[in-house]
Design goal:
The chain is 32% helix and 35% strand. It is α+β, with helices and mostly antiparallel strands and 173 residues long. A seven-stranded mixed beta sheet has the order 1-2-3-4-5-7-6, sandwiched between helices.
């Protein structure tokens, strides 16, 4: 079971711990939008920046026992097009590989659709992040575009899958 709640600044230290010292994994999660190594203060700063925006917010995910176990950002909220983008999706290391990520992403999609009227949810995932790609596919996201070699990490070039989950039925269009 996954429970979603608004991000709280006191969550930041734990979220920063989940990435640890693995710079490559850090880049997969953040796409260079944060500085390595990740510090709680930087997450909190982003949170307060989003609080001033009308089109972005952070969410924390709790496991069935109420322990902080996941985190993501909703941004690019477009109330005219009923669309939103998920980003910086991260799971506590002890919750990886057991389905918690899929549950969290599905819960995020249900919340956005059922509570906010969002019909189209997008996200991006680097091709080298196979576990995340599989998770998103299992949640119903479909690849809409592929951008080859769009991100440089040291000597590597990563391609990006742009994915979408649509709640619009064919006959509704």
């Amino acid at each position: 079971m996954v429970r979603l709640r608004p991000f709280k600044p006191q969550d930041a230290q734990e979220v920063a711990r989940w990435i640890g010292g693995d710079e490559r994994a850090f880049m997969m999660f953040t796409a260079g939008r944060y500085k390595f190594p990740l510090k709680a203060d930087e997450i909190i700063s982003k949170h307060y920046g989003f609080e001033k925006d009308n089109d972005a917010f952070m969410v924390s995910a709790l496991d069935k026992d109420g322990r902080l176990s996941g985190h993501f950002i909703v941004r690019k909220l477009d109330y005219l097009r009923n669309s939103a983008h998920l980003g910086f999706i991260i799971i506590a290391p002890e919750k990886r590989g057991i389905g918690f990520g899929s549950e969290m992403v599905k819960a995020a999609a249900e919340f956005l659709h059922d509570s906010m009227g969002i019909d189209r949810i997008t996200l991006g995932v680097f091709e080298c992040n196979e576990a995340a790609f599989k998770c998103y596919k299992n949640c119903g996201f479909e690849v809409k575009n592929y951008i080859k070699d769009c991100f440089d990490y040291k000597e590597e070039k990563w391609g990006l899958y742009e994915m979408e989950l649509s709640f619009i039925k064919e006959d509704d269009q």
